[in-house]
Design goal:
Elements: H1 3-29, H2 33-62, H3 71-105
Helix pairs in contact: 1-2, 1-3, 2-3
Length: 106
């Protein structure tokens, strides 16, 4: 697989993670916490896939293989960082919705 394909994989997996995390927030908003947690787990899998590709590229560079910086690579890194942040915040939103739901039941 060439560098551009690897970069596109990072973008794809990161986008999937972010989208799935957003779906998890929506599920929690509807008090469907089992589904929200399942979706966060799916987001974690997508994030792991993105990290795997990123780690491969980093290790390649450490081995002395030239990884050319490009706008596309920077874009992929940006997607990954945003997806990580969004997924972390989604977990906080889910916890908040769960707490709100518990207070309503009390």
């Amino acid at each position: 697989m060439n560098l551009e394909e690897q970069i596109m994989q990072i973008i794809l997996y990161s986008g999937n993670a972010k989208s799935t995390a957003f779906e998890a927030i929506q599920a929690a908003k509807e008090n469907n916490f089992d589904q929200a947690n399942e979706l966060i787990e799916k987001a974690n899998v997508e994030m792991s896939n993105a990290h795997r590709v990123q780690t491969f590229l980093i290790q390649s560079e450490i081995r002395g293989e030239k990884i050319e910086s490009s706008l596309l690579l920077i874009h992929a890194q940006d997607h990954l960082m945003n997806a990580i942040t969004f997924k972390d915040l989604a977990g906080e939103f889910i916890a908040l919705y769960e707490a709100m739901n518990s207070c309503r039941k009390s």
